[in-house]
Amino acid sequence: MNIDGVSTGIVLDHIKAGKSMQIYELLGLDKLDCCVAIIQNATSSKYGRKDIIKIDGKIDLDFDILGYIDNNITVNIVDDNRLEKKVHLDLPETLTNVIKCKNPRCITSTEQEIPHKFRLVDRKNKVYRCAYCDAEYTEY
Amino acid sequence: MSEIRNLINITDLSVKEIDHLIDIANDIVENPTEYQDICAHKKLATLFFEPSTRTRLSFTAAMMELGGNVLGFADANSSSAKKGESVSDTVIMAGCYADIIAMRHPKEGAPVIASTRTTVPIINAGDGGHFHPTQTLTDLLTISRKKGRLDNLVVGLCGDLKFGRTVHSLIEAMLRYENVKFVLISPEELKLPDYVKEEMDNCGAEWHEYERLEDAMPELDILYMTRVQKERFFNEEDYVRLKDSYILNLEKLEPAKKDLIIMHPLPRVNEISVEVDSDSRACYFYQALCGKHIRMALILYLLGMK
């Protein structure tokens, strides 16, 4: 399969296989009017399989969202066919409106229009706690 | 103190600040007339979105004894919350009328929201099963006044250690003092959660567990009783088997130290027999009195007056 390279834009590389659609939605890439390519299950010498997203234009990226979803992602910023910058991600200290608290006793379950905030409490195990009720966030 | 301060969790206060609050409270006890008009023309709003007896009354009494005024509501049904008003809007409104706000809310984290919506200090008077810092301050003042110290103590915690927020907060607060040993007395079903035990380990605190109150009694300096609630048990059989082990009576107190202090956050149902009330070691009603004095100290501190 052949997908053209990006002349000026952003390439998100080393996305964990299967996570590209989640990133596409959370970053709001569906709202862009430039060309966006999602490549799933590409061969990776590092991880076996990976996803890649190519964005044919420069946009402001929310590195917190990317770092939270998968901090192994590499962000390549390309300008005029040259790699301008390579950004390695880290787990963000705080998250705002990326995940939602699932504790039914939390104030965020009833109070309207307040930001859902989390803070990183355990970097090694990727544990975030709600900034309001302190409940640990779990995926399921 | 120049910035606006709130009290959401006990850890918002440093040990130095807690010691300062205890000093103010002790001075209030010794010189009450010096404080009787200190808050004249100041107003405390008590926003109680769920009912409470002791906490609301002690805040009200505290502000009245400082010469201030109190306004507010005692449950959500008598506020605009019933009409669907948000916590944010209620707090912004209350901040227009009062100099300081004490709020209780059934939802965890509600006081955090409140603190971002107003420029007057917010005191968390209990947010669901989450934090209740003024109870912890009450407990610390009681221990300090009765034992003369907050370090070098053996603290027995008995009853529901799994869901009891007062127990978790008291442990968190006392871990900051030197050589405090914790004795945990509870049924298997209501043992202290692992994360609190890990916290004790991380602080290097000594702790051990008992299932029977009688076994723990001789070594204790403090016995902190809590209520064992029937609905916490998985089956009736376990509840019946264990409930009597957690009822304190004079017989169970026989092997205890003469200078033990018995505490309870109240309300008591049947976990402390009424016959214990007349024992000089019973401190739970004195604890309620300390609740008023430490809240007086806290109001003065957060208003920047002490």
Output the keywords.
heterodimer; A: 140 residues; Alpha-Beta Plaits; five-stranded antiparallel beta sheet; 10% helix; elongated; B: 306 residues; alpha/beta; Rossmann fold; 2 domains; four-stranded parallel beta sheet; 11 helices; 9 strands
Detailed description of the structure:
The complex is a heterodimer of chains A (140) and B (306). Chain A is mainly beta. Chain A folds into 2 domains: 9-88, 2-Layer Sandwich (Alpha-Beta Plaits); 94-130, no CATH class. Chain A is built from 2 helices and 8 strands, in the order βαββαβββββ. In chain A, the strands form 2 sheets. A 5-stranded antiparallel β-sheet of chain A has the order 2-3-1-4-5, covered by helices on one side. Chain A has a 3-stranded antiparallel β-sheet with strand order 6-7-8, with helices on one face. In chain A, β2 and β3 form a beta hairpin. The mean pLDDT of chain A is 89. Chain B is α/β, with parallel strands linked by helices. Chain B has 2 domains: 10-131 and 291-302, Aspartate/ornithine carbamoyltransferase (Rossmann fold); 134-288, Rossmann fold. In chain B, 37% of the residues lie in helices and 15% in strands. In chain B, the strands form 2 sheets. In chain B, strands 7-6-5-8-9 form a 5-stranded parallel β-sheet. A 4-stranded parallel β-sheet of chain B has the order 2-1-3-4, with helices on both faces. Chain B is globular, with a radius of gyration of 20 Å. The mean pLDDT of chain B is 93. Chains A and B meet through loops of A and α4 of B.
